[in-house]
């Protein structure tokens, strides 16, 4: 009897006080510009990302040669940057403003992450520079709950329970409450 009463008390406590371990937060935001060719256009795209995030972006290489796209294997064709913390929130806010806080259901993945694209980087409040040109970019946001390190650390590594993982419904609800966003189907 004692154990049962204790567990109901704990349940009440969890309901009264918001459980900090259940909160969803942004783990990272990845910005990606795929140019499809190496050379000058790619370095200009890298400059765009650098001016947006104040971080040095990383180049991605083509996995294999596709003649119809005109790309060769191991040729640098895209540039991306990973942003975390406060900066990630600020940039995501700018990106969602461009989308007018409207996303589709299919923008959300089953593992509780979401992504979207924008057509022109100048919509984010960057100055238009004729020598740079205009680039579109992909935003991808990874959501997580506290405790995700348990599955990633090297020592005493273990699995995260399903309840602690972020589901598609959780991600959509988080987006709607945090940004008062609209999710169309």
Brief summary:
This protein is of the alpha+beta class. It is built from five helices and seven strands. 32% of the residues lie in helices and 22% in strands.
Structure explained in plain terms:
With 185 residues, the protein is α+β, with helices and mostly antiparallel strands. Helix content is 32%, strand content 22%. The protein contains 5 helices and 7 strands, in the order αβαββαβββααβ. The strands form 2 sheets. The chain has a 5-stranded antiparallel sheet with strand order 2-3-1-6-5, with helices on one face. The longest helix is centred in the N-terminal third of the chain and has 15 residues, at 2-16. It is elongated and about 75 Å long.
List keywords for this structure.
5 helices; two-stranded parallel sheet; 32% helix
Residues in β-strands, percent: 15-25%
Low-pLDDT ranges? none
Shape category = elongated
Tell me about the largest β-sheet. Answer: 5 strands, antiparallel
**What's the average pLDDT?**
88
Query: What is the alpha-carbon Rg in Å?
Result: 21 Å
Order of helix and strand elements from N to C terminus: HEHEEHEEEHHE
Tally of strands: 7
Assembly of the depicted chains: single chain
Structural class by SSE content: alpha+beta
Continuous helix count: 5
- How is the largest sheet built, in terms of strand order? 2-3-1-6-5
Distance between the termini: 48 Å
Percentage of helical residues? 25-40%
């Amino acid at each position: 009897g004692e154990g049962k009463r204790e567990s109901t008390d704990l349940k009440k406590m969890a309901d009264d006080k918001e459980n900090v371990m259940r909160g969803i937060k942004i783990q990272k935001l990845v910005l990606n510009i795929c140019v499809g060719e190496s050379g000058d256009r790619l370095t200009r795209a890298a400059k765009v990302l650098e001016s947006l995030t104040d971080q040095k972006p990383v180049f991605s290489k083509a996995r294999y040669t596709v003649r119809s796209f005109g790309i060769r294997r191991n040729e640098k064709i895209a540039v991306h940057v990973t942003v975390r913390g406060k900066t990630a929130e600020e940039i995501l806010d700018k990106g969602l403003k461009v989308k007018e806080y409207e996303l589709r259901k299919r923008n959300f993945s089953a593992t509780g992450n979401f992504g979207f694209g924008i057509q022109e980087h100048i919509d984010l409040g960057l100055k238009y520079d004729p020598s740079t040109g205009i680039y579109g970019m992909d935003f991808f946001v990874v959501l997580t709950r506290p405790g995700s390190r348990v599955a990633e650390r090297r020592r005493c590594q273990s699995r995260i329970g399903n309840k602690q993982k972020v589901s598609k419904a959780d991600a959509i609800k988080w987006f709607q409450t945090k940004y008062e966003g609209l999710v169309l189907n």
